[in-house]
C-alpha cells in the first residue's frame, strides 16, 4: 500500500495488525465511523460503480473493495483520487470562510483608555469575495491549481487599517506589523498618502519597540519626527518621552514631553485631555529624579502613581475621514509661520486675554527674542546654553496662556527659561560650570513645574504626587523644614492616598537627621496606628525603634526591636532589629540579654551590608567583658578589627581593648595592643590618644619616668598647640607620680598656655590647684580656686573647687572660711 494511503487510514480507525504483521480485517462499525455511517457509504459505492447496491450486500461488497484497494484495483481504488480532490476543495472553502470573519486577538491589558477591538466586518475587508458563489469558484480554482502544481494554495492575508489597529491594541504586534507593512506597500505617491505613510511608520516603530526589536525603532521614529503633519510629530514625541523615561534618560524625556505639549492642540479632538496632564506629570518626575541625583539624598518616589507606571495612550479607532482630519490638523497654520514665528494676543469678550503662538522649525533664540520683544522683556543666555541657540522648535498653540509660551519653547529645545523682573534667562540643564549653582537652578525649576501642575490641574487625582514631589525637591535642596511641611500636608489632606504613609516615613527621616527624635517617633507612631496594613508598616516599626533608641529611651526601644524581630520580615530587617535590641540591652546593663541578641544578630548580619561588623563585635566585646568572659572579649575585639573600620573607629577599638585589659590587670597585653597599630595608619590625634594611654599604663605599673620619656619624645616635635597642651598635662601627671613637683608645676603652667578654653583646661587648672595644696602653696591654691568660682561651673567642678579651697583655708587655719567652703558656700567678699 502506498504511504499516502496508509496516512489516510492512520488518521482514522486504521485496521490493527496481528503479531506477525498481518493487517486484521476491519469490522463494519469501525468503517462506518471512518466515513460517517452506512447509508453514506452505500451512496458512495453506488456513485463509484454506476449501479445500485443492495442494502444487505453493501457491507460484504465493501469488504471486497477494501481487499482490492490494497492490491491497487477495484472500485475503491478508483475513488481514491476524486476523494482526495473533494477533500482539498472542502478544506479550501473552510479556510476562506474562516478568513471571511476572522476573530482578532484581544488582550485585557488595553493601552490607555482605548476601547476593546470590534469584530471585523466584510466592509472592512474589501479584498474578500462578496458572496459564497465567488468563494466556491475561488476554491475550485485553488483545487485545480493544486492538482496541477501538487502544492497547497496560498490564501492572501486580509489587509485593512481597522484590522491592523485591532491587532495592535490587542497586543498582537507581529500580526499588526505585517498588516501595516502591506498597507504601506499599497500607498501611492501623494501628499495624503505620504502623511499616511508617516503615520504607518510611527505605528511600525511602536510595534518594533513593543517586540523589543530596537534596531529599527530609531530610524522609524526619525521618519515620523520629520513628518509634515504636526499631529504625527506630537504623537512621536509623546511616545519617545515615555521610552526615554523608562530608560532613565530623564532630561531627554522632559524635552520630548515639552515637544509633544507644544503641538498638543493638533491632538485635542481625537485624544483624551489627560495626555496633557500626563506629559506635565512626566516632566515633574524627570526633573525631580534628576535633582535628587545631584544630592546625597536617598529619597525615592514611592508608590505606583508616578510616570514609570503610566501607560501611554495610543491612536484611537478612527475612520478614513477622522484620520485625514488628524493628519491635516495645523499644517496650513504652521506653513504660514514658515517665514517667521507668529505670536499674537487674543482679546476675549469679557476683557481677559489669551495668546496664540505658532512656529515651524524656528531657531529657539529667534522665537524667544520675538516673544521677549513683544512683551518688552530682556533676554540673556547663560554660557552653558549659548551653543543651543539655533536648535529648531515647533509650536502650535492657537489658544494658550502667556506663561506657557516661553516655557514650551525653551523646553522643546531641551532648555530652561527663568523669568526675573521682566528679564528672561535661558539655561542648559545638561551641563554646568558650578555644581552648587546648577543644583540650585534644577531645584528651582522642579519646584516651578510642580507648582504649575497644582495651579493648572487642581482636580487631577495626582495632586498628592505633586505635593510629595515638591517635598522631595525641598529636601534635596536643603530646605528640610519646608519639606516636612509638604509631607505633613500629604499625610493630612490626602490621608487616603498611597503616598500618605510614605510622607510620614520621609518626614520622620528628616527629623531623625535633624536629631528631632521625639518628632520622628510621633510620625512613625502614626504610621503604625493609622496604616497597619501598609507595605511599609514593618519598616516603620523598625524606624520607630531606632528613633526611640536615639532618643535615649533604651528600655522602650529594646521592646520595639524585639517586636520587629518577631514579625514576618526580611532577614535584613531581622539583623537590624537584633542589633538594635543588643545595643539597647547593653546600654541598660542587661548584659545577658545583650549577649543573646548579639548571637541572633550574628546569624543575619551578612544579609545587611549596612550593619558595621566592626561596631557589632566592638560592642559584643564590651558585653563579654562586662560578663567576665575575658577570652571571649579578646576574640570579639580581634574580630572587630577585621571589620570595615575607618581610622577613628579603629583607634577606638584599640583604646577600648587596651582599657579592658588594663581593667583586668593585664598591663603587658594592653601595651602590646597599643603598640600594634602602624603610625602611618593613624591620624595625629589618634596617635596622641594612644600615646596618652601608654603613659597612663606606665604610671600604673610604677614607671613614671618611662612615661615622661615617651611624652617628651613626642612633644618636642608637635606643632599643634591643643594636642601639645594635652600631652603636657600627661607629662605633668607623670612628674607628679615621680615626685618631681617643680617640673610638674612647670608643665601644668605650660599646658594652660596651650589649651583653649573648655572643660579640659578647667580640669587641668583644678589639678594645678590641688598640686599647690600638696606642695604647701595654699595661698596660690586659694587664688586659683577663687578665680574659678567667679566663673560659671558645672556642679561637679564647682564641688571640686570648693573642696580644694576649703582645704587651703584649713591649712591656713581660717576655719570659718573653710567650713563655709566645705558646706558648699562661697562668698567672694570674704576673699
TrEMBL record:
Keywords: Membrane, Repeat, TPR repeat, Transmembrane, Transmembrane helix. Residues 1-39 are annotated as: Disordered. Gene3D superfamilies: Tetratricopeptide repeat domain. Signal peptide: none annotated. InterPro entries: CellSynth/LPSAsmb/PSIAsmb, TPR-like_helical_dom_sf, TPR_rpt. The chain crosses the membrane at residues 83-100. Pfam families: TPR_16 (PF13432), TPR_8 (PF13181). It comes from the Bacteria. Coiled coil: none annotated. This is Tol-pal system protein YbgF. It comes from Anaerohalosphaera lusitana.
